[in-house]
Amino acid sequence: MILCADPKAQYISYKEEIDQVIQDVLNGNRYVLGENVEALEENFSSYIGVKHTIGVANGTDAIEISLRSLDIGPGDKVITVAHSAVATVAGIEACGAIPVIVDLEENFYTLNPDLLNQALTNDVKAVVAVHIYGQSSAMNQLLSFCNENNLFLIEDCAQAHGAVYDGKRLGSIGDIGCFSCYPTKNLGAIGDAGLITTNSSSLAKKIRMIREYGWVDRISTIKGRNSRLDELQAAILNVKLKYLDKDNQKRNVIAEKYDSLLSDHMVTPIRRPESNHVFHLYVCRLPNRNQLKKFLEEKNIFPGIHYPVPIHLQPAYHEKIKLASPLKITEQIAHEILSLPMFPELSLENVDYIIETILLFYKDYKC
Ligand SMILES: *Cc1c(COP(=O)(O)O)cnc(C)c1O
Known about the structure:
- There is one protein chain.
- This protein has two domains: 7-241, Type I PLP-dependent aspartate aminotransferase-like (Major domain) (Aspartate Aminotransferase, domain 2); 244-365, Aspartate Aminotransferase, domain 1 (Alpha-Beta Complex), CATH 3.90.1150.10.
- The protein contains 13 helices and 14 strands.
- The longest helix is centred in the last third of the chain and has 19 residues, at 244-262.
- A hairpin with a 2-residue loop joins strand 6 (164-165) and strand 7 (168-169).
- The chain is α/β, with parallel strands linked by helices.
């Protein structure tokens, strides 16, 4: 059985080291926000190239807490996309702001910067750019728009750990970077975890306060919450961070193999020239997506769909968010996208088997 993502395979790859650090944490006497969290925050800062990293409980919290640290809340609006994990919009809503949705760039499935102007009103305070599937948003255009209009730029890097745009790691370009370390992500824990990156010392200080009840010396001085990161997850992430570049490289080798044999039949991922892609997901576009998915499942290959229903069409959100433009591309691609199996431990033999099976589908169905 070949899954779309396989976090257990990654545990097995680094089992010895992971088992050891788990034992060390169990035998220590601090289980939450201790030395492993501190080490992870330092290691991740130097990896991304930022001054500060703050560990939090998950990626949704990372987005919510980042917005709160910028004093964004009820009465404010935040521009983002509907082609993402629900978490992006959930994080915006959790701080009390209203998400304003714009459509995508057709080639890259990221926020279309040409549509920002029509989404802009006085109460818009920030843009949350989602680096979907492991590829950067149009950062230069987003940065100049945000600078011209006095908006904060937050990067949703939950699918883009390690990706580089114009020589800089994603998460070091906007005001704040938000990472999820959910088990299937490029840097995945064995449970929930999140990381926030920033170069601003004052924001970092505020984010640290918000993640633990707004405390200064154990007195709540601003409104906060509990979004602490635990030592087990931090210790495991410290092990895996060492291998992140190598694992992203493996994802790229798999992607190139898929590209070379499938691009005649379907739209394979188009890379943004000024960035490298870290292939959190390898997503193709084809009209008969559902048929191919079923065909592969019969052969024990389990692709995914990220995401089948755009966020603005999901029941919990369709009345609460504001659309700034028609979401033509967002709605169109939801019917056409298919995520082929993609994880560093996927063997090249299995990649060959997946490709052969797809080619067989095209032969059988004569499409
Ligand atoms: C996974 C993900 C998140 C949120 O992460 P959680 O840790 O599950 O809260 C946010 N945005 C995107 C694009 C994601 O893929």
